[in-house]
């Protein structure tokens, strides 16, 4: 895994099929055993329910973090440009289209900052995003050079510190038993803010100023040629963290959303609920049930343990857009074990209504250590000593879907009577069908997938992920299979 420019996915087989596999030993190749197709004269292992398509897919993405640009800035201009081409350019690699960014500092910023740290400046006269001109702005602009139509959404990790009850960017002090002790955030233990409480000062003066803070953020980025289409009010609103954070109750969020929604609607910016990282769907339901706020919430973002609430929210609100807002972050090892786990997360979210799947760090230095002292994974790692980059296993796992599933595709539910359920399928706007599957066995596995009125057969190598793209001319929607 030392290549910088992975092989192009555009090679097409003799019958128009594309077929790619990833294993621990070889992260991107076409298996020797070809894909075959024939009329459905035998029972397939899996039926694709093309007759009952589910949610429309908006796209895949990543989060732009300051430390990612620090890492990429170690590369030569040519290598950095090639990395970003592989990540964002249409038809090349991961083909990312819907990305996230922070509002001010997040936990992978170079350090804490907000856009206005002047206590009492409710008029926001000192508001400025100039800090971002050194990192996030060039980062996003470099991505947009390859993907001009890139869609962006944003959320804060924390508000200006003087908006909070404890006047500090964090909510928690480092645990003296943890490895983060060396990264003391300066918060006294007796000034912490607990989960399940509102960390923001909930006066009308603060709520109004904070909503206008969002508005000035949107405007400042628009002036730099970067349009933001949607915001979520808070990253992980239940988490009392040692890095930039702010806890909220659903009631506190409702109070803030009454100010935020009109501020965003004046700019044509959507508002989602999130991000949600607890398995309690009632937190979402309380906000959606508010008669003033609920009708204006266009979607919801879930990450980490919030994934356990997704099935219930999607069942109760099938019209609500579901974003997987941050893939779980790993431990900086970027190993095959975690890449295999990443596939299970993708299966969970798409099977439960997700229309966007956002990875976390695009790039980090090897080891992936944050300003606050822990390691996380990334799609690309950079060696600070050599100034060279490499794509990680998770880049290829993401690429198995994002490189082939087009915006506007419909997720296709599957039906198996024999346990062949470890796959995902999508019907693209151009008529092609994408089938991605995991073989978690130590021997090759044969798949027979019913696509319309035909059987598509392929063999997945041992311990692999594979993607097969069935051309539109081979796809015909057949009547639904026997129930």
UniProtKB/TrEMBL annotation:
Listed transmembrane segments: none
Record organism: Actinomyces lilanjuaniae
Domain Glycosyl hydrolase family 30 TIM-barrel: 57-168, 208-405
One Pfam family matching this protein: Glyco_hydro_30C
Family: Belongs to the glycosyl hydrolase 30 family.
Organism superkingdom: Bacteria
Keyword Lipoprotein: no
Keywords noted in UniProt: Glycosidase, Hydrolase, Signal
Domain Glycosyl hydrolase family 30 beta sandwich: start-end pairs: 424-468
InterPro entries, A to Z: GH, GH30_C, Glyco_hydro_30, Glyco_hydro_30_TIM-barrel, Glyco_hydro_b
Protein name per the record: Beta-glycosidase
């Amino acid at each position: 895994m030392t290549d910088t420019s992975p092989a192009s996915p555009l090679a097409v087989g003799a019958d128009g099929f594309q077929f790619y596999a990833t294993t621990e030993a070889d992260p991107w190749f076409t298996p020797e055993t070809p894909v075959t197709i024939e009329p459905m004269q035998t029972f397939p292992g899996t039926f694709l329910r093309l007759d009952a398509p589910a949610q429309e897919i908006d796209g895949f993405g990543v989060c732009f973090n300051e430390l990612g640009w620090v890492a990429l800035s170690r590369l030569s201009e040519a290598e950095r440009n090639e990395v970003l081409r592989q990540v964002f350019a249409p038809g090349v690699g991961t083909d990312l289209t819907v990305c996230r960014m922070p509002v001010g500092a997040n936990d992978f910023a170079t350090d804490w900052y907000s856009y206005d740290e002047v206590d009492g400046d409710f008029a926001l006269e000192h508001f400025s995003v100039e800090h971002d001109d050194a990192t996030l702005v060039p980062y996003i602009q470099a991505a947009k050079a390859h993907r001009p139509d890139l869609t962006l959404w944003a959320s804060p990790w924390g508000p200006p510190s003087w908006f909070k009850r404890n006047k500090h960017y964090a909510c928690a002090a480092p645990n003296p038993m943890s490895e983060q002790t060396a990264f003391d955030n300066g918060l006294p233990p007796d000034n912490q803010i607990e989960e399940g409480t509102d960390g923001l000062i909930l006066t009308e003066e603060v709520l109004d100023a904070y909503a206008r803070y969002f508005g000035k953020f949107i405007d400042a980025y628009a002036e730099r040629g970067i349009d933001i289409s949607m915001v979520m009010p808070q990253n992980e609103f239940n988490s009392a963290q040692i890095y930039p954070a702010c806890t909220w109750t659903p009631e506190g969020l409702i109070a803030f959303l009454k100010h935020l929604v009109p501020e965003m609607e004046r700019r044509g910016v959507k508002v989602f609920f999130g991000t949600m990282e607890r398995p309690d769907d009632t937190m979402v339901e309380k906000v959606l049930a508010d008669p003033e706020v609920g009708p204006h919430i266009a979607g919801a973002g879930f990450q980490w343990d919030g994934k356990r609430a997704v099935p219930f929210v999607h069942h109760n609100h099938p019209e609500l857009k579901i974003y997987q807002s941050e893939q779980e972050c790993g431990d900086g090892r970027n190993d095959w074990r975690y890449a295999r786990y990443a596939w299970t997360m993708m299966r969970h979210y798409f099977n439960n209504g997700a229309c966007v799947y956002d990875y976390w760090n695009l790039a980090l230095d090897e080891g992936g250590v944050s300003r606050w002292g822990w390691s996380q994974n990334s799609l690309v790692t950079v060696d600070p000593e050599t100034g060279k980059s490499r794509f990680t296993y998770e880049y290829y796992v993401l690429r198995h879907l994002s490189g082939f599933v087009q915006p506007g595709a419909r997720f296709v539910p599957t039906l198996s009577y024999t346990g062949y359920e470890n796959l995902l399928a999508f019907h693209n706007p151009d008529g092609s069908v994408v089938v991605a599957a995991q073989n978690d066995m130590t021997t090759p596995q044969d798949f027979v997938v019913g696509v319309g009125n035909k059987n598509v057969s392929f063999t997945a190598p041992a311990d692999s992920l594979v993607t097969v793209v069935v051309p539109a001319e081979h796809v015909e929607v057949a009547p639904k299979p026997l129930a």
